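Researcher: Sequence of Peptidase M56 domain-containing protein follows. Predict its structure.
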Amino acid sequence: MTTEVLSAILRANLVGAAAILAVLLLRLPIRRLFGPEVAYWLWCAPPLAAFATLLPPRTEDGAAARNALAAAVDPVSAPALLAWTLGAAVVVTLLVRAQLRFMASMHAGCGGPAVVGVISPRIVMPADDGTYDDEERALIRAHERAHVSRQDPRAGALASLLQALCWFNPLAHVAAHVMRLDQELACDAAVLRCRPSARALYARTLLKTQLASQALPFGCYWPSRGLHPLEVRIGMMRDARVHDGLVGPLLIATTLALCAYAGWRAQPPVPRPAALVEHWRVNAGGPTMSVLLIDAPRQADR
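Model: Prediction complete. Tokens:
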């Protein structure tokens, strides 16, 4: 059982890592062609592909042994599983600590704008100290409400959970970070799609906003660190084109379906179960007994 669990974890991480690399390559071209909102949906591919490896595998006649990966990890299965559990516990502890630190900053009046929470997300507005006028505060509220309506806090929580489960996979942490950045671009685009005349005001509001300097694992905030400088968000606002139609969503849906199928196909097949050929009762003048004949699949390399 321990070996099977460890094999499933490794297989899911390998397939998920391949999907992450594909998304990192595709996100920029898809964003230029169809906009940030469509490109953001690409991040559904890694978890879908990883979870597909946990579905029941296909069966084939004369299939190769399914235990190849299990045999490779069997000698170290118990210590490795213990290390994985401890590592996941450490990452969860760090995420909870970061959440509590952000909440303490929020209660001290330094948090916001942000959406905090997963089950019942709450919008945190910056202090009303005269920094923003009424129109700018209205844009900030529209941005945070867009996060809530798009279920972005729950997507961020799922990304944090996958970081904990895949803590030893560096691509999982890169994906969680870049996904949050694309999430902000998609939210910006959703707000401006409804308020196309507010681009200049939106850009000025971004420049004035006190950008979050602390991590928020369970929520949404306006990040400025790492791979996503503020000028990228403002630069996206110069594109006044509205990407509409079905081509982009259909392309993303096809991509997600292919990723899920590829993840399922990545599982090694299991041999087809033996077929029950005949079952009858024999009574040769003595006690009655049941006879069951089994037609086992032939193995050419036996």
